[in-house]
Write the structure tokens for this entry.
Amino acid sequence: MRTHWRRLSVVGVGLIGGSIARAARARRLCDTVVGVGRSRASLEPALAAGAIDVATDDLADGVRDADLVVLCAPVGALPGLVRAAWPHLGPETLFTDTGSVKRGVVAAAHGCSARPGVTFVGSHPMAGSERSGFGASDPELFAGRLALVTETAATDPGAVAEVAAFWESLGSHVRTVSVDAHDRGVAVISHLVHLAAYGLVAAAAGDALSLAARGFVDTTRIAASAEALWTDIFRENRPALLEAIDGYRRILDCWEGWIRAGRWEALEAALGRAREIREKLA
């Protein structure tokens, strides 16, 4: 199993891609790092920082001869990037992504013609920031964080192990899950949370915001994330997100009913159960 990479190609050198490039460089995991972006100009900060050795705005050139390719683009763009890159991948290329929705990108990879030694394994580091761009990247972003690696009945176990080992080499601890379990799980613990943070800010807009203190600011920190990025995620994971919204709404409706009826003991017990669950989180 490979633990060192001759040529790592990172497609999209922003917060996540830049952090991968910088972490791989700091940990000496590869000989050469190639950065692929929409324009050469967008890659100049990464070149200047020494995070990448080669910069290109040509996807085919960027992935050619790489033995590890990591897609770090918005989730809506990932299926098209998989199909565009696939014919240019060399033999024995390991291909993965970092998107927070797996259904579309995995389906796109499975729809590509089989190529000897070329394997796609979907992955998702559970790390990030409300900030974006290479300037927000951090070589320690993945250290101590969870990385999810997805598998299907058609996924090569050896490739899954190599992708898992890659994330572990960046400092992450890894869990392997199915595509469906991934998308339904992150809908609840990530996508719904971001949607709710935006909603809390929208609900408080106006004079109330002048009263906002640490609790409101901490709770809504992620509402400072790029709205285009999160609209894209909500769209790509719509079925699972709608299911999560429905579950959350049922809880709020129940609690609202108790508040209207003055059932304070029931509400306190429910809040207590939620607190106990929260206290068990690391």
